[in-house]
Design goal:
This protein has two domains: about 110 residues, no CATH class; about 35 residues. Helix content is about 65%, strand content about 0%. The protein has seven helices and two strands; from the N terminus they run αββαααααα.
C-alpha cells in the first residue's frame, strides 16, 4: 500500500497592504484597548483617558482617529467603507461630548477597533457590502431629516400664524 504524497502548502503571499494593516492594529490597540479588563472584551485605551478632558479630549481623540482613515485610503479601502469609518469616528466624538455618559461610551464603543475590522476586511479594494451602504445611506437620510425638520416646522408655524 502506498502512502499518500504530502505536498507542502505554499505560504500565502503577504498582502501589499500588510504594513498599513499592522500600523492600524497597533494604533487601534493603543487607542481602544491598551489595558484589558480581565474576563471581558472591554479594554481601556488612550481614547478613554484623553476623553476625560472636557470637550477638548473628544476632539483630540476624534482627530487622532483620522489616522486610521488615512491608512485605509493607502490600503485602497472602498470610499463607502471610508464613509462608514468616518461615521464611527463622528458617533464616538458626538457621544463623547455628553458628560459622564461620554466617558462610558469611550470604554464600550471602541470606534478605532471597529474601523480596524473594516480595514482588515476591505484592504485592497475588497467589495463593500449592503450593510456598508445601508449604514451610510441611513445615516445620510437621518441627518437630512434632522436638518429639514426644524425648517419644515418653522414653515408650518409661519403658515398657521400668517395666512
Amino acid at each position: 500500500m502506498t502512502e499518500p504524497v504530502q505536498r507542502e502548502h505554499a505560504a500565502e503571499p503577504p498582502s501589499p497592504y500588510a504594513a498599513e494593516i499592522e500600523r492600524a492594529r497597533a494604533f487601534a490597540r493603543w487607542m481602544d484597548r491598551l489595558i484589558g479588563v480581565p474576563g471581558s472584551d472591554v479594554g481601556i485605551g488612550l481614547d478613554a483617558v484623553i476623553g476625560l478632558i472636557p470637550v477638548g479630549g473628544d476632539v483630540i481623540g476624534g482627530a487622532a482617529s483620522l489616522y486610521l482613515v488615512a491608512l485605509a485610503m493607502k490600503a485602497k479601502v472602498p470610499a463607502i467603507v471610508i464613509a462608514r469609518m468616518l461615521l464611527n469616528i463622528a458617533l464616538d466624538g458626538v457621544l463623547g461630548l455628553v458628560p459622564a455618559v461620554g466617558d462610558l461610551v469611550d470604554v464600550f464603543f471602541q470606534s478605532n477597533l471597529a474601523n480596524l475590522k473594516l480595514i482588515e476586511q476591505h484592504a485592497g479594494g475588497g467589495k463593500s457590502t449592503r450593510r456598508d451602504w445601508f449604514i451610510v445611506g441611513g445615516t445620510a437620510l437621518l441627518v437630512m431629516i434632522v436638518f429639514a425638520a426644524p425648517i419644515v416646522a418653522m414653515m408650518l408655524i409661519g403658515w398657521m400664524f400668517f395666512r
